[in-house]
Amino acid sequence: MKGNNISSMKDQNQLAQAHQSILHLQNTISQAQSHPNNQVIEQIENSLERAEQSLAQAEQITDNQQAIDLARQELEQQKQAYQEIQSRTID
């Protein structure tokens, strides 16, 4: 069923949702880089969880592996940025 137009629209919508989740995570991480505090760290953790779930859903319904790979790379970059923030706030 992935080949019909409705499924294609669902694929694109799920990919767009995953991308939006990753962008939200990126914005929250940027905020934490300039103003790290416990509330922002908690927001990052929530955003990270949502982004991972959204991407996992997109992976299940789309055939666009290139878009999935790009989103996965973006998510991994944000995870690394988050780890850097964590290591700075622990020190």
Automatic annotation (TrEMBL):
Q: Tell me which stretches of the chain form a coiled coil.
A: 41-88
Q: Which UniProt keywords apply?
A: Coiled coil
Protein name, per record: Molecular chaperone DnaK (HSP70)
* Species of the source: Aquibacillus albus
